[in-house]
Sequence to fold (456 residues):
Amino acid sequence: MQNSGAAAAPPQQQPQQQQQNQWPSILTSKPIFSTLFTLRDPKPNNKPTLLLYTFLAISLLSITFIFSLSTSSSSSSGPHSGPDPFLFPAHHAHNHRIIYDSNKANPPPPSIAYLISGSRADSARILRLLHATFHPLNQYLLHLDPSASHADRERVALTVQSNPIFKAAQNVHVMGKPDFAYQKGSSPVSLALHAASILIRLNLKWDWFVCLSADAYPLVTQDDLLHIMSFLPKEMNFVNHSSYIGWKESRRLRPIIVDPGLYLAEGTEMFYATQKRDLPSAFRVFTGSSFSILTRSFMEFCILGADNLPRLLLMYFANTPSSLSNYFPSVLCNSRQFNRTVINQNLLYAIYDDRHISDPRPLNSSDFDDMVRSGAAFARKLQPDDPVLDLIDEKLLGRSPGSVVPGGWCLGEPGNSTCLTWGDASILRPGSGSQRLEKAIVKLLSNGTFRSHQCV
Ligand SMILES: *[C@@H]1O[C@H](CO)[C@@H](O)[C@H](O)[C@H]1NC(C)=O
Ligand SMILES: *[C@@H]1O[C@H](CO)[C@@H](O)[C@H](O)[C@H]1NC(C)=O
Ligand SMILES: *[C@@H]1O[C@H](CO)[C@@H](O)[C@H](O)[C@H]1NC(C)=O
Ligand SMILES: *[C@@H]1O[C@H](CO)[C@@H](O)[C@H](O)[C@H]1NC(C)=O
Ligand SMILES: *[C@@H]1O[C@H](CO)[C@@H](O)[C@H](O)[C@H]1NC(C)=O
Fold:
């Protein structure tokens, strides 16, 4: 419970006390963004590297949280240390706004906070996924679990640091201290809550939280996605869920497991108790999918809320296999406050068949047309460097290799460097992907039929 507890619990006292003398001058002297990028690694054994990671440990975050409360009013001031004024003209008094689309009927674009996480040998995929989902208005937290080498983590941080676009937008963060995330266990819930708490503590105004594993990929541009989501109420959670348990009862809910990542420094095989337990009767269990699109208010409810439901279920699911696919659906549907905000569709394209009951089968070029037709926003799972990824880049995202996905904020010549000249980030240029997504969402919400699929 140590890991998952840390995300939900109030700031820990001890490490704070220790380090407070060390950090406050650094943390208060500059806005949080720039400070976190230049922090030194406090671990004595590691050679001090100045470029460094955005996030080091929960204890450190507690401190930054405390200081961000006192400095939040000044955290976006100063044209030299904040995000580039060209990208965010509205945040600065003297702007050079470039307007070529003045459609006033469009609501302001929302923002999505992404956790992009992977494992050993996933650093290239994580970076590709970052480029394919990039938008200056969003927030990104990149995570490589402990099976990846420190060098991999360093390479990801260096690449992020050296990219002029990420530097200008200041919205990509790399988790320096990895969390254990064993997909078949319960530690991924702890990682998701930890990541959301980091993003909340940064006090950035994001609206939705999305966890992407390295084997996922977008099927629409961020302009498409943000455009469609700007028309949706900001309390809609897109979560596959069902109270029909079926085969999952014997494989997912009755076994008692202990995830080694929660208490052992070295990851080992999961521990299964010989006994099985009954299904709970104090609350209803809902099963679902590990991918979901969750609102900020719901994440705050899970992490900061005074209602004890999220913590109670967290403790129950700590000993259940694959709990990430069940935790959020169960919290949502057992909560009176949130049970009417859930849409039973996660906007992810994935195929389960007889041979892939619990994990979707790998997608390839043969699936491309179906993926497009589905109107989904993301797909999973994709093999590293599968040719279908290039097809998606070319046909759906308009992204050239090594570049970020273009959007309305990119003003350069078409080609590799379109996004090296930037304009206002809040101007979206949705394409055909937004029509596909719109059709899918309209179908979901039409006639209020989504109500009859809520929490059943
Ligand atoms: C939400 O919770 C309330 C109170 O428990 C209940 O009356 C209502 O039917 C629930 N709604 C759904 C969609 O489950
Ligand atoms: C999510 O639910 C929708 C319908 O409710 C279904 O079509 C889709 O296959 C499900 N996706 C996953 C990943 O389970
Ligand atoms: C894609 O995968 C399916 C099922 O795994 C397979 O039948 C098909 O031949 C594959 N197509 C390509 C182009 O590799
Ligand atoms: C894109 O970049 C590659 C290598 O950097 C270069 O060879 C190619 O000509 C560029 N393409 C365009 C359209 O600028
Ligand atoms: C919505 O309602 C109309 C008329 O009541 C019906 O023709 C249509 O098929 C319904 N659409 C869906 C998606 O249920």
About this structure: The longest strand covers residues 287-295. DSSP finds 17 helices and twelve strands in the chain.
